[in-house]
Amino acid sequence: MNPAVDLAGAAVERSGQHVVQDVDLTISRGSWFGLIGANGSGKTSLLRALAGRLPFAGGSCRVDGEELAGDRTARALRFGFSPPADKLPDALRGHDVLELISGSIDNVRPRLGKLHDALGLTPLLNRWIGDCSAGMRQRIAVAAAFAGGHSLVILDEPFNWLDPVAIFDLREALRDRVDGGLTLITALHDLGTLASACDAGLMLADGKVALALDEDMLRTAARNPQAFERQTIDRLRSGSAT
């Protein structure tokens, strides 16, 4: 069976500079893949390219076995993608944002399932974005990634601005969706989530692969999270790709 996503030698440019280069990764269907790295390591650029928001400057990008490196529109159609929460238009309400993606608010609840309650969406649907806190905007942005009913979803640091209860509920709901067949790709700063919830992952440093994390490595990390955190921080601090 083909993997859900397969990148080989992937490169991304921004402002004429390579911010991601020579990235190889394989993501299995029905798994949670975590991407970590320091600020400026290329995580967001890689995810935006995968989601069709940026072009690839080189390499191969196969999605469900189909080569899509040169087709941004096709990539954008394959993935549910969370827009930046701080860029949501102030003049729209929560349900307006979701309807732009889903076509009708009636489509949203069945597509979100348990995520609807985990995100506490009901009171946000009629609220103006301009009146929302950063955490409320984040909840709407995460919901937007699922509003289209995609089986592949990309979230860029989905737990930012959420309180501890919301983080716990969202993490549990996301894991439940993955166990039900969703393929989820997330950029993370939370090493605990990477170790305990993800099935595989990748560390980026200066736009290159610094460390590939397979299922066995993450199981070991979950058993000894403090040691994993120390090793990961030391590698991130050094900023060296190997």
Show unreliable segments: none
Tell me the series of helices and strands, N- to C-terminal.
EEEHEEHEHHHHEHEHEEHH
- Per CATH, the class reads Alpha Beta
- DSSP strand content: 15-25%
CATH superfamily: P-loop containing nucleotide triphosphate hydrolases
Structural class: alpha/beta
CATH fold description: Rossmann fold
Rg (C-alpha, Å): 17 Å
Q: What overall form do the CA principal axes indicate?
A: globular
Which key terms come to mind for this protein?
about 240 residues, alpha/beta, Rossmann fold, 6-stranded mixed β-sheet, 10 helices, 10 strands
Write the layout of secondary structure elements.
Elements: E1 5-14, E2 17-27, E3 32-37, H1 43-50, E4 58-63, E5 66-67, H2 72-78, E6 79-81, H3 94-102, H4 108-112, H5 114-118, H6 134-146, E7 152-156, H7 164-179, E8 183-187, H8 191-197, E9 200-205, E10 208-213, H9 215-223, H10 225-238
Parallel strand pairs: 3-8, 3-9, 6-7, 7-8
Antiparallel strand pairs: 1-2, 1-4, 4-5, 9-10
